[in-house]
């Protein structure tokens, strides 16, 4: 008979120890009565016991992130390699978690395992954090009796993928930062600075240069319609996010379009190849058949162009094609990748070659992001200089003209 799962909560307590000294602390228990009983067993007479209140700004109330899952996996791998039993490992890792949501999830997993469930089955109840790839790899580790080694491999995989994602976010942040900073600076100048000069120009009673008239008109429009512009930007952002979330066709369109962006597109191409190679190497080394491993790689690659290509590769391999030929048929993978995978197939060292491909393209992404960062710094200065300089010139043109007339 399966043991009933117990959901633990964090309680704050205050009481007196055996020496009569006032002491306080926190503990995890199913309810207040259980918390009081635990304290008495420790020789503490409880006076106050209540649920811990969590501030929305507290780290403990924050959502679980992919990096938390990677860290959890690394901790579990280390514990199991050290000979700590699975249940005790889960207990230790859960108790040390700083996030309440993470702690609760890990205690739920521990309760499932203590009730007789496999570790992979317990993890699969939280598909948002442990996807099919993760659960299937854990299951393979359980069945082979090498769960510690498998968790170590998964941890490495998760750490590499998250590091790659961080580099991509960094690469995409710079162009967005240039646009946002440019818009903010221009808006401030148009709304706050230009009107001051406009009052001065009115007192001149002379015709303004065309460029100055254009800037003044733009300033008047900005002052009059700034709320509508902000509302329009917010509405566009909401509609974009909503459509992106609901429409697969729209997501596919964005995926294809973003690969064509100069500089950034090349980085995303390399990142997709790195994810493909890293995922395929991890699943294949775990003993997953190549066709199933390709399925996992298609789901993890993160772009529809490469996802469709990998599905095409899987179909080719399932009909008897070599992996090298199937990859070559897609027409989007670099020749170096194709040749290295071909050598790995022929030599029986496909896993090692896929690892080398992944490492090569991860380094390429890293170098490309650093280069983009170096390129964007002067570009930001050029954009801001052009905008600010253009507005300053527009404002001072009438003053220069007046100086010439007076002269």
UniProtKB/TrEMBL annotation:
<keyword id="KW-0175">Coiled coil</keyword>
<feature type="domain" description="Type II secretion system protein GspF">
    <location>
        <begin position="72"/>
        <end position="195"/>
    </location>
</feature>
<dbReference type="GO" id="GO:0015628">
    <property type="term" value="P:protein secretion by the type II secretion system"/>
</dbReference>
<feature type="transmembrane region" description="Helical">
    <location>
        <begin position="225"/>
        <end position="241"/>
    </location>
</feature>
<feature type="coiled-coil region">
    <location>
        <begin position="147"/>
        <end position="174"/>
    </location>
</feature>
<dbReference type="InterPro" id="IPR018076">
    <property type="entry name" value="T2SS_GspF_dom"/>
</dbReference>
<keyword id="KW-0812">Transmembrane</keyword>
<keyword id="KW-1133">Transmembrane helix</keyword>
<feature type="domain" description="Type II secretion system protein GspF">
    <location>
        <begin position="276"/>
        <end position="398"/>
    </location>
</feature>
<dbReference type="InterPro" id="IPR001992">
    <property type="entry name" value="T2SS_GspF/T4SS_PilC_CS"/>
</dbReference>
<keyword id="KW-1003">Cell membrane</keyword>
<protein>
    <submittedName>
        <fullName>Type II secretion system protein F</fullName>
    </submittedName>
</protein>
<keyword id="KW-0472">Membrane</keyword>
<dbReference type="InterPro" id="IPR003004">
    <property type="entry name" value="GspF/PilC"/>
</dbReference>
<dbReference type="Pfam" id="PF00482">
    <property type="entry name" value="T2SSF"/>
</dbReference>
<feature type="transmembrane region" description="Helical">
    <location>
        <begin position="379"/>
        <end position="399"/>
    </location>
</feature>
<keyword id="KW-0813">Transport</keyword>
<dbReference type="InterPro" id="IPR042094">
    <property type="entry name" value="T2SS_GspF_sf"/>
</dbReference>
<feature type="transmembrane region" description="Helical">
    <location>
        <begin position="174"/>
        <end position="194"/>
    </location>
</feature>
<keyword id="KW-0997">Cell inner membrane</keyword>
<comment type="similarity">
    <text>Belongs to the GSP F family.</text>
</comment>
<dbReference type="GO" id="GO:0005886">
    <property type="term" value="C:plasma membrane"/>
</dbReference>
């Amino acid at each position: 008979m399966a043991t009933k799962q117990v959901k633990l909560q964090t309680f704050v307590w205050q009481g007196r120890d055996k020496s009569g000294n006032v002491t306080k602390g926190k503990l995890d228990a199913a309810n207040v009565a259980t918390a009081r009983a635990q304290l008495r067993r420790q020789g503490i007479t409880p006076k106050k016991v209540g649920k811990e209140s969590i501030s929305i700004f507290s780290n403990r109330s924050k959502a679980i992130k992919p990096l938390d899952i990677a860290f959890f996996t690394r901790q579990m791998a280390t514990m199991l390699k050290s000979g700590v039993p699975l249940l005790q490992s889960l207990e230790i890792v859960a108790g040390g978690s700083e996030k309440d949501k993470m702690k609760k999830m890990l205690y739920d997993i521990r309760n499932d395992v203590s009730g007789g469930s496999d570790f992979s089955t317990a993890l699969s109840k939280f598909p948002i954090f442990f996807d099919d790839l993760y659960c299937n790899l854990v299951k393979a580790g359980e069945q082979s009796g090498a769960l510690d080694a498998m968790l170590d491999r998964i941890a490495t995989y998760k750490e590499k993928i998250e590091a790659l994602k961080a580099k991509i976010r960094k690469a995409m942040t710079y162009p967005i930062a240039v646009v946002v900073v440019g818009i903010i600076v221009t808006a401030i100048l148009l709304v706050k600075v230009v009107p001051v000069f406009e009052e001065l120009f009115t007192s001149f009673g002379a015709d303004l240069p065309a460029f100055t008239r254009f800037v003044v008109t733009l300033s008047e429009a900005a002052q009059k319609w700034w709320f509508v512009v902000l509302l329009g930007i917010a509405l566009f952002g909401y509609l974009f996010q909503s459509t992106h979330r609901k429409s697969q066709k729209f997501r596919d369109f964005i995926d294809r379009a973003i690969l064509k962006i100069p500089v950034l597109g090349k980085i995303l191409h390399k990142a997709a190849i790195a994810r493909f190679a890293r995922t395929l190497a991890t699943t294949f080394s775990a003993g997953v058949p190549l066709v199933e491993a390709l399925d996992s790689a298609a789901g993890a690659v993160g772009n529809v162009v490469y996802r469709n290509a990998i599905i095409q590769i899987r179909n080719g391999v399932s009909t008897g094609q070599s992996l090298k030929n199937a990859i070559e048929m897609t027409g989007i993978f670099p020749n170096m990748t194709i040749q290295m995978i071909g050598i790995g197939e022929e030599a029986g060292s496909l896993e090692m070659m896929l690892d080398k491909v992944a490492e090569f393209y991860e380094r390429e992404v890293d170098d490309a992001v650093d280069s983009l960062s170096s390129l964007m710094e002067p570009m930001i200065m050029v954009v801001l200089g052009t905008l600010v300089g253009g507005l300053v010139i527009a404002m001072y043109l009438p003053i220069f003209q007046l100086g010439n007339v007076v002269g």
